Amino acid sequence: MASPLAFSLLAFLVFSSLASIAEAYDSLDPNGNITIKWDIIQWTPDGYVAVVTMYNYQQYRHIQSPGWNLGWTWAKKEVIWSMVGAQTTEQGDCSKFKGNIPHCCKKTPTIVDLLPGTPYNMQIANCCKGGVISSWVQDPANAASSFQLSAGLAGTSKKTVRAPKNFTLRAPGPGYTCGPAKDVSPSTFLTSDGRRKTHALKTWNITCTYSQFLAQKTPTCCVSLSSFYNDTIVNCPTCSCGCQNNLTHPGSCVEADSPYLAYAVNDPSKSSYAPLVQCTSHMCPIRVHWHVKLNYKDYWRVKIAITNFNYRMNYTQWNLVIQHPNFDNLTQLFSFNYRSIAPYGDINDTAMLWGVKYYNDLLMEAGPYGNAQSELLFRKEPSFTFEKGWAFPRRVYFNGDNCVMPPPDAYPWLPNSSPRLRFPSFVLMVVLWAALALSLIHHL
Fold first, then answer.
1. Taking the complete model, does pTM exceed 0.85, yes or no?
2. Which fold has domain 27-214?
3. What confidence tens digit (pLDDT) does each residue in 66-111 have?
4. What is the distance between the alpha carbons of residues 342 and 178, in angstroms, rounded to a whole number?
5. All structural domains of the chain with their residue ranges
6. For 113, what's the count of Cα atoms within 13 Å in the CB-facing half-sphere?
7. What span, in angstroms and rounded, lies between the C-alpha atoms of 143 and 58?
8. Nearest residue to 411 via CA among 393, 384, 423, 385
9. pLDDT tens sequence across 279-321
10. Is-same-fold flag (27-214; 218-410)?
11. Does the 218-410 domain belong in CATH 1.10.10.10?
12. Spatial distance between the Cα atoms of 71 and 81, rounded to a whole number of angstroms
């Protein structure tokens, strides 16, 4: 019989596996993933030539600057002879080669995209964008990234070739988990004139899924709420993304008027990707504010404001995903792009919003320009109400990460009928004492 310790360890491992699977599943984008397609298009005396393409099938999660890097472990003793459209970060030890020196001899190479402006003879289609890959909804024409490599060993053939193992995708940090390479039907290619089809000699598919929990241990955004019918502003929950007095992460925030701000931003001991946020009660890099602005007879209006509190990050091609039951009646939208992503079939309650190109698609670092805002005009549906927080969103995502919402009991509430008349407490006390005095006089 297994010992209690062994049983507990097994239960923990099973629970951890289930938790990881659950974290990687996104109910608003259940089929979202990045698929890596490895197409061998030619055999050579010393290996093969392959085209590797990453397709971003995630509806709203993209890879922004400084871009992706892709790694794997070779199954045998393969080397990369040459590359087009990308390069490895290290060459490795190629000292045993006397004549033709390979591009990379490492057992575990790391690949990065080339930058825009790369000479034409070093490019292929869908390359050289600095590792930036758009989301499928936001810009499907730029939702892929490709490179070509010549790799392998002498005598490699269809019978002896082996797929690389242990794929890793960083974008640019952690978050993605890649499965093993699987044999699939060979890909089909169309020539530039569109008149001829060719087929890959062999194709492997690798599927990578995203987990917000693996990407970072704390949330990256929060939501605050307000309304025209209530003076209360519901701020982001305290410590939504961390606390100022967290002794394990000193120096994680800086006051906006601090004389040390410039040094803190450029601190050489800190990673340029590590958030440095303005000191707030919520400590989030991003805050999304939803304000119920106006109420008309047949319509109601909402103002959305996004504020960047991160001093080290400009968010390029940012996007919001908001879930609210009235999106089926969205009438007008100002200064943002909009598309319904309808994760539940015919129920249109989820919208993706993003900035207008060259106008507000870049959310600048923390400061006077680190914000973007828009207004949404909704037509009232039969079930419309301002009661019990119905006018506020159910879920909000920023760049694919789920934002921390205030607790429902903190939402600005509306009275059941006309607005309540609110009196200061001392006025109510005077009225009560007056009523009591009149009652005593009456009985005398």
1. no
2. Immunoglobulin-like (2.60.40)
3. 999 999 999 999 999 999 999 999 999 999 998 889 999 999 999 9
4. 27
5. 27-214, 218-410
6. 29
7. 9
8. 393
9. 999 999 999 999 999 999 999 999 999 999 999 899 999 999 9
10. yes
11. no
12. 16
